[in-house]
Amino acid sequence: xxxxxxxxxxxxxxxxxxxxxxxxxxxxxxxxxxxxxxxxxxxxxxxxxxxxxxxxxxxxxxxxxxxxxxxxxxxxxxxxxxxxxxxxxxxxxxxxxxxxxxxxxxxxxxxxxxxxxxxxxxxxxxxxxxxxxxxxxxxxxxxxxxxxxxxxxxxxxxxxxxxxxxxxxxxxxxxxxxxxxxxxxxxxxxxxxxxxxxxxxxxxxxxxxxxxxxxxxxxxxxxxxxxxxx
Length: 230
Fold this sequence. Notes:
alpha/beta; Spore Coat Polysaccharide Biosynthesis Protein SpsA, Chain A; 2 domains; 8-stranded mixed sheet; 10 helices; 8 strands; 41% helix; globular
């Protein structure tokens, strides 16, 4: 299997070097490329650090995750795409897991996850990521999909400035494509919960999902999310 790993960044200097080095260390160089798409409004050294760690870096003039992910997919040279957030760490054998899922006939899928925190409340949240529930398939779960199917679905909708991952997953699940959840945890940063509170983040997420479900304007959703969470 040849794998193109796509990572969007926006001021991720503290995380991106470690992530790229980790991905390079746990894949075969001749079968893998790591693509970092840096947002134009980044003010730190994310791009330089990612490049030094072994990634190919592109600058995206549209400062949105959907646009960055689509650019990375367009630049990808391999037939399997793996979208990863900058503040997560996939399991060490993620490439083997993805290859097996594809060999079993699945067209796309994602991983379960756990937080880098000992909080019992976050362990409850993580437990549900092994199931195909309301919030399944969010970006932290690291989506993999064949490039042909990603293109057939039209990629991420760039009109979505937030929750572009859920919108994509909603469309993908409506097709006859086969998908799976790999029960091998991605390690996810708990910084959002640390900077706010467990209750506040979960209430915000629920409200956002309701607003998304009723097609609330994106700018309203983005304004609300930024106003309620640090």
